[in-house]
From TrEMBL:
This is DUF262 domain-containing protein. Pfam families: GmrSD_N (PF03235). Residues 38-234 form the GmrSD restriction endonucleases N-terminal domain. InterPro entries: GmrSD_N. It comes from Pseudoflavonifractor intestinihominis. PANTHER family: DUF5655 DOMAIN-CONTAINING PROTEIN (PTHR35149:SF1), SLL5132 PROTEIN (PTHR35149).
Length: 657
């Protein structure tokens, strides 16, 4: 008997909880028509390794419209089974889920067939939440509610709720006769059901099922390359791959501070690893994993531009290693995030403290943490490509040298320039060309060297700094610290730049300075005094938009920062000048960028009303008006002047260290 059978059946036969049979032809042992028994109380299972629900309301609307007047053929559904009461859905989970939801809604008005159970292991409480319209706020017990939230590993509740509301609105608004037609046509609609009979003890049995999945769906519109890569991993070793995939999804749910979409993470892994088995002949790969130029492998075999990269991969353990490495990488990042501000023992355990007998000092080890931490907390995903390469080829390689570990400084330089540079010039192309080279370490050093003397010109001080697509009151703060740390830690030696590890460590580990919102405050307001009485100005929307600009920040001594409060810009300058005058030996402004920008700010913001000018007003109302007029008039002009001054200030920032 063949291991995979197929037959055309109706949705009623598929979904009704009663014994039925599917006819099929066994061309291996017997060419006559055979029967496959679908027993009563069978259960359809969406495995935990499956992707999240992807259908949109438009897909649901289309399905409902299609079957409203006529029954339809609804495509292929692929199941695997080791016992006839349990069927894992390999392909078709989107349709089965939505069809079940439609039938559940029709139950409100009509006698619907008893339905087979659908167990969604990616959303364990599917049936219960369907009963409550996916509104977990109805759950009064906070412990139970938290458990429901925790078990929604793929964050599907909102999407399922949207689909359910769409179905409810559609069904509820139908006339009774039309509603009956919808039910009849849906149950009479047909699918091509493919069932693969598997032996859980044999990976070859599972592999055949996955082969069908790949052949049916490879590069179709219904799947993205993540599904295809996952399928190849399952084909190699189904049991281990499914476990790893579920763990990857669960780990992604836990790391809420780490923005790294799966499709980007998998792409980065392919870029980092695929060339190792291809003689480093592949130069460019597109975002959908296709060759961007012709490739001739060492074997002489030629592949044309546009070929799917998986066609070139012959290593029988490539995809399994991919899942294992990505899960390990996620756990490394999780440890980094949990370490917060300083490296703990869990993080340091990843670092080989004595590579090749050349001991790493504490500055180097802790600097690795500071840099990794800054990159993973940024929402820019492209620099993570370099970080992943560093993790795979340095941290995970016991033969790494001390110099290999110090490559993190070049990665930090490039990553900082990327995040703080021109957003229109951002792409992964230059970084891809680094990680795909056999001598990637040399390529990394060359790339960093080529931009070091342009650092002060590459930084964009007059644009919004965003985190996950939004500019916030703190999104620019973290990047400002990263830029300042670079400027503080590189020292010019003749025509070259030398990185001072101790200075970098001192900057990152010290708690005696922080990033001050110098021009636009986090409270979105400034205060001043009129004869001892407080007057206040609330920023306009235009001014609020400038809060995340790098030019808005100074890295400043914590003590004096506490004196500034929400003072207007003129008062802040006076407070800082007075403090520096009375404390000539104090390090008030830490890095050369802050020193430069403070000097330019003093030259630019010259019209802010002084305390004497405010007190000279005839009333508190007129003082308030004077402050308001400044911020809505001259301040804007001076801000633009300040930005222009930064742009034309061409002196090498490292010479100011």
């Amino acid at each position: 008997m063949s291991e995979t059978i197929s037959g055309i059946i109706t949705i009623k036969i598929l979904m009704e909880n009663k014994a039925s049979a599917m006819g099929y032809v066994d061309y291996v042992d017997d060419s006559s028509v055979q029967k496959w028994e679908l027993i009563k109380d069978r259960e359809y299972i969406i495995p935990g390794y499956q992707r999240e629900i992807r259908w949109k309301r438009q897909n649901v609307q289309t399905l409902l419209d299609d079957v409203l007047n006529n029954s339809k053929f609804l495509g292929n559904i692929l199941l695997s089974t080791a016992q006839k009461n349990l069927y894992e859905i390999m392909d078709g989970q989107q349709r089965i889920t939505v069809i079940l939801m439609i039938l559940e809604r029709l139950k409100k008005y009509l006698d619907v067939i008893p339905l087979c159970k659908l167990q969604n292991n990616t959303f364990p409480n599917f049936a219960k939440e369907l009963e409550m319209d996916f509104q977990i706020d109805r759950i009064e017990d906070p412990v139970v509610k938290d458990l429901y939230i925790e078990q929604d590993v793929l964050n599907q509740r909102e999407k399922l709720s949207q689909l359910w509301m769409c179905i409810c609105t559609y069904v509820d608004n139908l006339p009774p006769d039309t509603r009956s037609n919808l039910l009849e046509n849906l149950l009479d609609s047909e699918i091509n059901l493919l069932i693969t009979k598997v032996n859980p003890q044999k990976n070859s049995s599972r592999r055949l099922c996955v082969d069908y999945f790949i052949d049916i769906n490879n590069k179709s519109e219904s799947l993205d390359y993540i599904d295809i890569l996952k399928a190849y991993a399952f084909r190699e070793r189904f049991d281990k791959a499914t476990t790893a995939w579920i763990q990857i999804q669960a780990q992604e749910k836990v790391m809420t501070e780490f923005y790294y979409p799966k499709e980007v993470m998998f792409l980065h892994y392919i870029l980092c690893r695929v060339n190792k088995g291809l003689g480093y002949k592949v130069k460019k790969i597109s975002d959908d994993l296709r060759l961007q130029s012709e490739v001739i492998l060492p074997t002489g075999k030629k592949y044309l531009k546009g070929t799917d990269i998986e066609v070139l991969i012959t290593d029988t353990s490539f995809y399994q290693n991919m899942l294992s490495c990505l899960l390990a990488f996620q756990k490394f990042i999780d440890v980094t995030l949990k370490s917060k501000t300083h490296p703990d023992e869990a993080f340091l355990a990843y670092i080989n403290t004595n590579p090749n007998g050349n001991k790493l000092d504490f500055d180097t080890k802790s600097n690795i943490f500071f840099i990794v931490n800054s990159i993973v907390r940024s929402s820019d995903v492209v620099p993570r490509l370099l970080l992943m390469k560093y993790y795979l080829d340095v941290i995970c390689d016991i033969s790494s040298t001390k110099d290999d570990y110090k490559l993190i400084y070049d990665i930090n330089f490039l990553a900082t320039c990327f995040s703080a540079g021109n957003p229109n010039a951002k792409s992964r192309a230059s970084y891809s060309s680094i990680v795909m080279k056999e001598k990637w370490k040399d390529a990394l050093k060359r790339s960093a060297t080529s931009v070091k003397n342009q650092f002060h010109k590459k930084i964009q001080y007059g644009r919004e700094v965003q985190y996950k697509g939004k500019a916030t009151a703190t999104s620019g703060e973290y990047l400002a610290k990263r830029v300042a740390a670079v400027a503080y830690s590189y020292v010019r030696s003749g025509t070259s730049l030398k990185f001072d590890e101790k200075k970098y460590n001192r900057f990152c580990s010290s708690l005696d300075h922080n990033a001050e919102h110098f021009l636009i405050n986090q409270s979105y307001s400034v205060t001043a005094k009129y004869h001892g009485n407080t007057i206040k100005y609330e920023y306009s929307p235009e001014l609020r938009g400038w809060i995340s600009y790098l030019s808005n920040y100074l890295i400043i001594n914590e003590d004096i920062n506490g004196l500034l409060g929400n003072a207007c810009i003129g008062d802040k300058i006076r407070i800082i000048d007075k403090y520096m005058e009375s404390h000539p030996d104090a390090c008030v402004l830490v890095d050369p960028i802050s020193k430069r920008n403070y000097k330019l700010a003093k030259d630019s913001f010259i019209s802010c009303p002084s305390p004497e000018e405010l007190d000279a007003c005839v009333s508190i109302e007129s003082a308030q008006e004077l402050l308001t007029n400044y911020y809505e008039g001259a301040f804007k002009t001076e801000f633009v002047s300040y930005l222009n001054a930064i742009k034309v200030y061409t002196e090498d920032i490292f010479s100011l260290s």
